[in-house]
Amino acid sequence: MLPPPCPMVGTMLQPPWNARIYRNRHGRGTRTPMFGTRLPRYRTRTGMFDDMVAAQVRRLGQAWPELIRPLQFAVEDVPPSDPTPWQTEPNMTSQCFPASHGIPARVVLYRMPLQTEAPTKLELQLAVRDELVARIAELYGRRPEEIDPDWGL
Questions:
Q1: Is residue 113 domain-resident?
Q2: pLDDT tier at 56, thresholds 50, 70, 90
Q3: Three-state SS for 75?
Q4: Closest CA to 134 of 103, 108, 112
Q5: Which domain holds residue 63?
Q6: Number of domains comprising the chain
Q7: Angle, CA 104 vertex, CA 112 and CA 60 arms, to 5°
Q8: Are residues 33 and 49 in the same domain?
Q9: Cα separations (Å) of 12 from 6, 9, 18, 22, 29?
Q10: Whether residues 20 and 59 fall in one domain
Q11: Regarding beta strands 30-31 and 22-23, do their DSSP bridges make them parallel or antiparallel, or are they unpaired?
């Protein structure tokens, strides 16, 4: 004989903002979201940075599909604290890793140094674009201006 299902299980599986009414953390009053999930305020800085990187990768992928398709792109919060021994001058904003042993080439952007370096949203978009183009050019042994003529402007 199976025990009766726990009444809390069904309510725990759905997020609280999908429920009609839920209680605050002390259980006394009702609590609703302060703003909707589709409003711009709901987006975090991390999510907006990821969207910027994805938009730049899409833009570059449309211009250079044969160069961008075999690459992997990643975003990390901060660079590793111990640089590899062959890096004489480590780049703290991005890094590229060439393909080896069945692992595709990768470009990694570090979010927090880029956000610290670029105070406005426009400057951050330009910094993300320049870092991506510079790392892709480094991987393929080309000049960044060949990949994106607007690089560095």
A1: yes
A2: very high
A3: strand
A4: 108
A5: 42-147
A6: 2
A7: 60
A8: no
A9: 11, 5, 11, 12, 19
A10: no
A11: antiparallel
Q: How far, in Å, CA of 12 to CA of 18, rounded?
A: 11
Q: Which two tokens stand for residue 52?
A: 């910027």
Q: CATH number for the domain including 66?
A: 3.30.2010.20
The secondary element (H helix, E strand) that includes residue 57 is: helix 45-63
Report yes or no on 153 lying in a domain.
no
Burial (CB count within 10 angstroms: exposed 0-12, middle 13-18, buried 19+), residue 93 = buried
Weakest-pLDDT range from 44-53, 84-93, 104-113: 84-93
**Which of these, 81, 62, 61, lies nearest to 73 by C-alpha position?**
61
Q: Are residues 22 and 78 in the same domain?
A: no
**Residue positions counted in the chain:** 153
Q: What is the pTM of this model?
A: 0.70
pLDDT > 90? residue 139: yes
Question: Using an 8 Å Cβ cutoff, are 76 and 111 in contact?
Answer: yes
Whether 152 maps to a domain, the answer reads no
Q: Is the pLDDT of residue 71 over 80?
A: yes
Q: Contact at 8 Å (CB) between 92 and 79?
A: yes
Position 123, amino acid:
E
